[in-house]
Write a structure and sequence with these properties.
Helix content: 10-25%
Number of domains: 2
Order of helices and strands: EEEEEEEEHHEHEEHEHEEHHE
Strand order of the largest sheet: 13-11-10-1-12-14-15
Shape: globular
Largest sheet: 7 strands, mixed
Strand content: 25-35%
Radius of gyration: 20 Å
Protein backbone atom coordinates (compact mmCIF):
# COMPACT_ATOMS: atom_id res chain seq x y z
CA UNK A 1 0.00 0.00 0.00
CA UNK A 2 2.98 2.33 0.44
CA UNK A 3 5.28 3.59 -2.29
CA UNK A 4 8.40 5.73 -2.56
CA UNK A 5 6.10 8.75 -2.92
CA UNK A 6 5.00 8.32 0.70
CA UNK A 7 6.31 9.56 4.04
CA UNK A 8 5.44 7.45 7.09
CA UNK A 9 5.15 9.34 10.39
CA UNK A 10 5.33 7.39 13.68
CA UNK A 11 4.85 8.36 17.32
CA UNK A 12 7.94 7.36 19.32
CA UNK A 13 6.46 7.94 22.76
CA UNK A 14 7.36 5.36 25.41
CA UNK A 15 4.92 4.04 28.01
CA UNK A 16 6.13 4.46 31.58
CA UNK A 17 5.13 2.24 34.57
CA UNK A 18 2.74 4.99 35.62
CA UNK A 19 0.45 3.09 38.00
CA UNK A 20 1.52 2.63 41.63
CA UNK A 21 0.08 2.47 45.14
CA UNK A 22 0.76 4.96 47.91
CA UNK A 23 -0.52 5.46 51.44
CA UNK A 24 -2.02 8.50 53.08
CA UNK A 25 -0.94 9.93 56.42
CA UNK A 26 -3.68 7.77 57.98
CA UNK A 27 -2.23 4.65 56.36
CA UNK A 28 -5.04 4.28 53.81
CA UNK A 29 -4.06 2.91 50.41
CA UNK A 30 -4.71 4.91 47.24
CA UNK A 31 -3.99 3.92 43.64
CA UNK A 32 -2.25 6.61 41.59
CA UNK A 33 -2.12 6.78 37.80
CA UNK A 34 0.12 9.50 36.40
CA UNK A 35 -1.73 11.22 33.56
CA UNK A 36 0.54 14.00 32.29
CA UNK A 37 3.39 16.18 33.45
CA UNK A 38 2.40 19.84 33.77
CA UNK A 39 5.83 21.44 33.96
CA UNK A 40 9.18 21.31 32.17
CA UNK A 41 10.88 19.64 35.15
CA UNK A 42 8.45 16.63 35.13
CA UNK A 43 7.92 16.83 38.88
CA UNK A 44 4.29 18.03 38.91
CA UNK A 45 1.77 15.56 37.47
CA UNK A 46 -1.93 15.42 36.83
CA UNK A 47 -3.20 12.12 38.20
CA UNK A 48 -6.20 9.85 38.43
CA UNK A 49 -6.52 8.65 42.02
CA UNK A 50 -8.70 5.87 43.39
CA UNK A 51 -10.37 6.57 45.72
CA UNK A 52 -10.09 10.21 44.69
CA UNK A 53 -11.71 11.49 47.89
CA UNK A 54 -8.64 10.50 49.91
CA UNK A 55 -6.63 13.23 48.20
CA UNK A 56 -9.10 15.81 49.49
CA UNK A 57 -7.96 15.31 53.05
CA UNK A 58 -4.18 14.84 52.91
CA UNK A 59 -1.11 16.90 52.12
CA UNK A 60 1.39 14.09 51.68
CA UNK A 61 1.43 10.60 50.21
CA UNK A 62 3.94 7.92 51.14
CA UNK A 63 5.24 5.58 48.45
CA UNK A 64 7.57 2.81 49.56
CA UNK A 65 9.83 4.22 52.29
CA UNK A 66 9.83 7.68 50.73
CA UNK A 67 7.78 10.62 51.95
CA UNK A 68 8.15 11.92 48.45
CA UNK A 69 4.79 13.06 47.15
CA UNK A 70 3.09 16.34 47.97
CA UNK A 71 -0.64 16.57 47.24
CA UNK A 72 -1.49 19.87 45.55
CA UNK A 73 -5.14 19.03 44.90
CA UNK A 74 -7.18 15.85 44.24
CA UNK A 75 -5.92 15.79 40.65
CA UNK A 76 -2.33 17.01 41.06
CA UNK A 77 0.72 15.74 42.92
CA UNK A 78 4.34 16.87 43.12
CA UNK A 79 7.47 14.78 43.57
CA UNK A 80 10.29 16.28 45.62
CA UNK A 81 13.02 15.17 43.22
CA UNK A 82 13.67 13.30 40.00
CA UNK A 83 15.39 10.62 42.04
CA UNK A 84 12.18 10.04 44.04
CA UNK A 85 10.11 9.86 40.86
CA UNK A 86 12.54 7.45 39.20
CA UNK A 87 12.80 5.26 42.31
CA UNK A 88 9.04 4.97 42.72
CA UNK A 89 8.33 4.19 39.05
CA UNK A 90 11.19 1.73 38.67
CA UNK A 91 10.57 -0.10 41.95
CA UNK A 92 6.82 0.16 42.56
CA UNK A 93 5.39 1.26 39.22
CA UNK A 94 3.27 -1.02 37.06
CA UNK A 95 2.55 -0.71 33.36
CA UNK A 96 -0.91 0.87 32.96
CA UNK A 97 -2.49 -1.93 30.96
CA UNK A 98 -5.92 -1.27 29.43
CA UNK A 99 -8.78 -2.22 31.80
CA UNK A 100 -10.03 -5.03 29.55
CA UNK A 101 -6.84 -6.99 30.31
CA UNK A 102 -8.05 -8.73 33.45
CA UNK A 103 -4.75 -9.36 35.19
CA UNK A 104 -2.00 -7.52 36.98
CA UNK A 105 0.79 -6.05 34.86
CA UNK A 106 3.84 -8.31 34.56
CA UNK A 107 7.51 -7.75 33.78
CA UNK A 108 7.01 -8.77 30.15
CA UNK A 109 4.46 -5.97 29.66
CA UNK A 110 7.25 -3.41 29.92
CA UNK A 111 8.46 -4.73 26.55
CA UNK A 112 5.23 -6.01 24.99
CA UNK A 113 3.00 -2.99 25.68
CA UNK A 114 5.43 -0.83 23.74
CA UNK A 115 6.31 -0.11 20.13
CA UNK A 116 9.70 -1.32 18.85
CA UNK A 117 10.67 2.31 18.21
CA UNK A 118 9.51 3.70 21.59
CA UNK A 119 12.09 6.24 22.71
CA UNK A 120 10.69 9.26 24.57
CA UNK A 121 9.32 8.27 27.99
CA UNK A 122 6.09 9.87 29.14
CA UNK A 123 2.99 8.01 27.87
CA UNK A 124 0.52 6.17 30.07
CA UNK A 125 -0.95 4.25 27.14
CA UNK A 126 0.62 2.82 24.00
CA UNK A 127 -0.15 4.41 20.62
CA UNK A 128 -1.73 1.14 19.58
CA UNK A 129 -1.39 1.35 15.79
CA UNK A 130 2.38 1.38 16.36
CA UNK A 131 2.28 -2.09 17.90
CA UNK A 132 1.87 -3.67 14.45
CA UNK A 133 5.36 -2.65 13.32
CA UNK A 134 8.38 -4.89 13.72
CA UNK A 135 11.98 -3.96 13.01
CA UNK A 136 11.84 -6.25 9.96
CA UNK A 137 8.75 -4.49 8.59
CA UNK A 138 10.29 -1.06 9.11
CA UNK A 139 13.38 -2.22 7.21
CA UNK A 140 11.22 -3.38 4.30
CA UNK A 141 9.50 -0.01 4.23
CA UNK A 142 12.84 1.82 4.18
CA UNK A 143 14.11 -0.46 1.43
CA UNK A 144 11.20 0.67 -0.77
CA UNK A 145 12.53 4.23 -0.54
CA UNK A 146 9.85 5.39 1.90
CA UNK A 147 11.02 8.00 4.40
CA UNK A 148 10.17 7.28 8.03
CA UNK A 149 9.89 10.22 10.40
CA UNK A 150 9.19 10.35 14.14
CA UNK A 151 7.36 12.76 16.43
CA UNK A 152 6.31 12.48 20.07
CA UNK A 153 2.86 12.73 21.64
CA UNK A 154 2.63 11.34 25.15
CA UNK A 155 -0.65 9.43 25.14
CA UNK A 156 -2.82 9.97 28.19
CA UNK A 157 -5.96 8.17 29.38
CA UNK A 158 -8.10 10.99 28.00
CA UNK A 159 -7.53 9.68 24.49
CA UNK A 160 -9.62 6.62 25.31
CA UNK A 161 -12.31 8.13 27.54
CA UNK A 162 -15.80 7.67 26.07
CA UNK A 163 -17.82 10.57 24.72
CA UNK A 164 -20.64 11.12 27.20
CA UNK A 165 -22.19 14.28 25.76
CA UNK A 166 -25.28 14.14 23.55
CA UNK A 167 -23.53 16.46 21.09
CA UNK A 168 -20.11 14.97 20.28
CA UNK A 169 -18.68 18.46 19.74
CA UNK A 170 -19.17 19.29 23.42
CA UNK A 171 -16.74 16.59 24.58
CA UNK A 172 -13.34 17.79 25.84
CA UNK A 173 -9.97 16.05 25.59
CA UNK A 174 -7.45 16.09 28.43
CA UNK A 175 -4.33 17.97 27.21
CA UNK A 176 -1.36 15.83 26.16
CA UNK A 177 2.26 16.83 25.65
CA UNK A 178 3.72 16.73 22.12
CA UNK A 179 7.01 17.56 20.42
CA UNK A 180 8.10 17.64 16.77
CA UNK A 181 11.71 18.34 15.80
CA UNK A 182 12.15 21.27 13.42
CA UNK A 183 14.02 19.08 10.94
CA UNK A 184 11.16 16.58 10.91
CA UNK A 185 8.58 19.32 10.39
CA UNK A 186 10.59 20.84 7.54
CA UNK A 187 10.71 17.44 5.81
CA UNK A 188 6.95 17.03 6.21
CA UNK A 189 6.22 20.46 4.75
CA UNK A 190 8.64 19.78 1.88
CA UNK A 191 6.89 16.47 1.20
CA UNK A 192 3.52 18.24 1.03
CA UNK A 193 4.90 20.76 -1.47
CA UNK A 194 6.24 17.88 -3.58
CA UNK A 195 2.83 16.14 -3.55
CA UNK A 196 4.00 13.21 -1.44
CA UNK A 197 1.50 11.40 0.77
CA UNK A 198 1.84 11.79 4.51
CA UNK A 199 0.92 8.46 6.12
CA UNK A 200 0.17 8.99 9.82
CA UNK A 201 0.41 5.93 12.04
CA UNK A 202 -2.17 6.37 14.77
CA UNK A 203 -4.69 9.02 15.73
CA UNK A 204 -2.14 10.56 18.12
CA UNK A 205 0.20 11.21 15.21
CA UNK A 206 -2.64 12.82 13.25
CA UNK A 207 -3.53 15.10 16.15
CA UNK A 208 0.08 16.18 16.70
CA UNK A 209 0.58 16.95 13.00
CA UNK A 210 -2.69 18.81 12.58
CA UNK A 211 -2.30 20.78 15.82
CA UNK A 212 1.20 21.90 14.83
CA UNK A 213 -0.20 23.07 11.48
CA UNK A 214 -3.05 24.92 13.24
CA UNK A 215 -0.96 26.84 15.76
CA UNK A 216 2.39 26.93 13.93
CA UNK A 217 4.20 25.61 17.01
CA UNK A 218 6.07 22.32 17.37
CA UNK A 219 5.73 21.61 21.08
CA UNK A 220 3.46 22.12 24.05
CA UNK A 221 0.14 20.70 25.18
CA UNK A 222 -2.62 19.74 22.78
CA UNK A 223 -6.26 18.97 23.45
CA UNK A 224 -7.18 19.03 19.76
CA UNK A 225 -10.41 17.10 19.29
CA UNK A 226 -11.05 16.31 15.63
CA UNK A 227 -14.70 16.01 14.62
CA UNK A 228 -16.45 15.78 11.23
CA UNK A 229 -15.95 18.97 9.24
CA UNK A 230 -12.31 19.35 10.36
CA UNK A 231 -9.96 20.64 7.63
CA UNK A 232 -7.01 18.23 7.50
CA UNK A 233 -3.86 20.05 6.38
CA UNK A 234 -1.15 17.39 6.77
CA UNK A 235 -2.33 13.77 6.99
CA UNK A 236 -3.35 12.07 3.73
CA UNK A 237 -3.72 8.53 5.04
CA UNK A 238 -4.07 6.90 8.43
CA UNK A 239 -3.12 3.54 9.92
CA UNK A 240 -5.35 2.96 12.93
CA UNK A 241 -6.83 0.17 15.02
CA UNK A 242 -10.52 -0.63 15.32
CA UNK A 243 -12.01 1.56 18.01
CA UNK A 244 -14.89 1.21 20.41
CA UNK A 245 -18.21 3.04 20.02
CA UNK A 246 -18.56 6.48 21.61
CA UNK A 247 -14.82 7.24 21.48
CA UNK A 248 -13.00 10.28 20.15
CA UNK A 249 -10.88 7.88 18.09
CA UNK A 250 -13.92 6.70 16.15
CA UNK A 251 -15.03 10.31 15.72
CA UNK A 252 -11.63 11.17 14.22
CA UNK A 253 -11.84 8.28 11.76
CA UNK A 254 -15.30 9.51 10.78
CA UNK A 255 -13.93 13.00 10.20
CA UNK A 256 -11.19 11.52 8.06
CA UNK A 257 -13.20 9.33 5.65
CA UNK A 258 -16.86 10.04 6.42
CA UNK A 259 -19.30 8.23 8.69
CA UNK A 260 -20.81 6.08 5.90
CA UNK A 261 -17.38 4.71 4.99
CA UNK A 262 -16.59 4.02 8.63
CA UNK A 263 -19.83 2.06 9.00
CA UNK A 264 -18.96 -0.09 5.96
CA UNK A 265 -15.51 -0.84 7.35
CA UNK A 266 -16.84 -1.76 10.77
CA UNK A 267 -19.57 -3.95 9.33
CA UNK A 268 -16.87 -5.97 7.58
CA UNK A 269 -14.70 -6.01 10.72
CA UNK A 270 -17.57 -7.45 12.75
CA UNK A 271 -18.55 -9.94 10.05
CA UNK A 272 -14.96 -11.14 9.56
CA UNK A 273 -14.35 -11.17 13.33
CA UNK A 274 -11.45 -8.72 13.26
CA UNK A 275 -9.92 -8.03 16.64
CA UNK A 276 -10.67 -4.75 18.40
CA UNK A 277 -8.83 -3.09 21.33
CA UNK A 278 -5.13 -2.29 21.71
CA UNK A 279 -3.81 -5.64 20.52
CA UNK A 280 -6.35 -5.86 17.70
CA UNK A 281 -6.21 -5.48 13.93
CA UNK A 282 -5.61 -2.28 12.02
CA UNK A 283 -6.97 -0.56 8.94
CA UNK A 284 -5.40 1.68 6.33
CA UNK A 285 -7.67 4.55 5.30
CA UNK A 286 -7.21 7.52 2.98
CA UNK A 287 -8.71 10.95 3.54
CA UNK A 288 -11.59 11.93 1.30
CA UNK A 289 -9.45 14.67 -0.27
CA UNK A 290 -6.31 12.61 -0.95
CA UNK A 291 -5.38 11.31 -4.37
CA UNK A 292 -6.13 7.61 -5.17
Amino acid sequence: MLSSNDVLVLNNTKVIPARFYAKTENNKEVEILLVSSTGPDNLIWKVLASPKKLLNTVETLHAMSLQAINVIDPETIEFNSHKDLETILNSAGKMPLPPYIKREAEEIDIERYQSVFAKKAGAVAAPTASLHFTKELLKKIENKGIEILYLTLHVGPGTFLPVRTNDIREHKLIPESFYIEQEVWDKILSAKVNKKRIIACGTTTVRALEYAACINKLSGLTSLYITPGFDFQIADALITNFHLPKTTLLVLASAFIGWKNVKKIYEEAIEQKYRFYSYGDAMFIKSQDSSP
